[in-house]
Design brief:
0% strand, EC 7.1.1.2, 77% helix
Length: 318
């Protein structure tokens, strides 16, 4: 009976969360924008509170505090002070230099909550950030460029798959923002494709209960049937390999930037994409080199194997 009530309550929270998103997409004033973000935030908090883990309780508190801080900056900046407004939205999104709270919160989330915080909870702040950036785009252009670089750099030595996806999200948000410079339709398409890839990732890792790279060694079920093919295609898509979804996502961004002659930014965004491809290829090697359960690897052998793999990947990039 308790579980039925719990599921009913969570479904109700999800409904109001989506209602908040719908309300925000149809808002025409700063107050309504702020209210819609608060609705989506308040109905996401129960997902974090209903878990009995101490770490998730702390994560819930951190999430609530930083979301409230972002809302305060957003309200203060709505009085024609768009720099403060944009800073508050970047705080809500967990972008550089405010990305540390997102890393801390994501470490203790299950895959379902992680999926919500990476997709549904980012819709409204991203939309409102684009509105604010119309007035101060040149000021924040360099900051988003650095955000992409930090996302690429942070993902290189991650063993936690959730941390890898958080850093990857920072990179993708920079691509989304740059793609919206010329036409907002590029953002809608990019975000839809990105959310679709996140759905596949959630279904895959949630079903197998995998949170760290080394767990792939002991999960033979991942290589059964066609799961390995789905994994390869998903990460190739995140890397931007043609003719997959990720390629078209980033190609649209490059076309958008080329229309306003941001060739310097185009060059460095391509370099950034090559850097983060290292992290995805490093993850894919775990699938290629999956060992049998009967092979019991000691901690020394595991560490030695990881170091050898990293050296090989660096040589490949060179």
């Amino acid at each position: 009976m308790y579980f039925k009530k719990k599921n009913y309550f969570l479904n109700l929270c999800l409904f109001f969360m989506m209602f908040g998103v719908y309300l925000g997409l149809n808002s025409t004033s700063w107050i309504m924008m702020w209210l819609s973000m608060e609705i989506t935030m308040m109905f996401f908090v129960p997902y974090l509170m209903l878990n009995k883990s101490m770490m998730e309780s702390f994560s819930c508190l951190k999430y609530f505090i930083f979301q409230c801080l972002g809302s305060i900056f957003f309200i203060l900046g709505s009085f024609d002070f768009f720099i403060l407004n944009s800073f508050g939205l970047m705080l809500k999104l967990g972008l550089f230099p405010n990305h540390f709270w997102m890393l801390s919160v994501s470490k203790s989330l299950n895959w379902y909550n992680f999926f919500l915080i990476m997709t549904v909870q980012k819709i409204l702040p991203l939309m409102f950030l684009f509105i604010s950036l119309k007035f101060i785009l040149k000021i924040f252009m360099f900051l988003f460029f650095i955000n992409s670089f930090i996302g690429n750099l942070g993902s290189m030595n991650q063993m936690d798959l959730r941390m890898l996806m958080v850093f990857s999200s920072m990179n993708h948000i920079s691509w989304m923002i740059l793609s919206s410079i010329f036409n907002m339709i590029y953002f809608y398409i990019y975000f839809f494709f990105y959310s679709l890839l996140m759905v596949f990732l959630y279904l895959l890792f949630n079903k197998s209960n995998i949170f760290y790279m080394y767990q792939i060694f002991y999960m033979k079920s991942l290589m059964m049937k066609y799961n390995h093919f789905i994994i390869f295609m998903m990460f190739f898509s995140f890397m931007g390999f043609p003719p997959l979804l990720g390629f078209f996502m980033k190609m649209m961004s490059l076309i958008s930037m080329s229309m306003i002659f941001y060739f310097f930014i185009i060059f460095f965004m391509i370099i950034h994409n090559l850097i983060i491809s290292f992290s995805y290829m490093r993850l894919m090697i775990f699938f290629f080199m999956n060992v049998s359960r009967s092979l019991k690897m000691t901690k020394f052998n595991m560490k030695k194997y990881f170091n050898l793999m990293n050296i090989s990947m660096y040589m490949f990039l060179i």
